[in-house]
Amino acid sequence: GCGNSALSHDLHELGYTDVTSIDFSPACIAAMRARYARCPGLRWAVMDIRALAFPDASFDVVLEKGTLDVLMVEETDPWDVSPQAAAAMRRVLAEVSRVLRPGGCFISITFAQPHFRKPHYAQEAFGWSLRHAACGDGDAGAFHYFLYVMRKGQPLDPRDVALG
């Protein structure tokens, strides 16, 4: 869900003029439509990430920033995720894979460390490769965030296959 983040508008200002943003909240989407009505390349839709209403192979890039974290918010042990949360994550990732074009890219930005998140992403059924990088300012006391990049149509590294 895009929430009330300015990311879509920031992307538009950088020259990405065909941006579709979704959120589960009708109030949020209405507010974002009103706020950015002057940007015709920005589209807004009320949608559930578990059942995307887009045709197969609709997007070159799917970007999520913290949305998948919501699926894990009630988990008490990140080492032992409930079957319900794991199934919800699989359902969402299968939808992302479905709407990506061949060669398309899924970018996930999260605070979830690789040992917690990579097993969810590293599923051969999604048909994508997996890379990640830690980001942050290097301050030992600062929180780092992680960037995961999945490329549709490229194979998983055998070490990642073993995680999934």
From TrEMBL:
It comes from the Eukaryota. The keyword Transferase applies. Belongs to the methyltransferase superfamily. GO terms for biological process: methylation. It comes from Mohoua ochrocephala. GO terms for molecular function: S-adenosylmethionine-dependent methyltransferase activity. Keywords: Methyltransferase, Transferase. The keyword Iron does not apply. This is EFMT4 methyltransferase. Residues 1-107 form the Methyltransferase type domain.
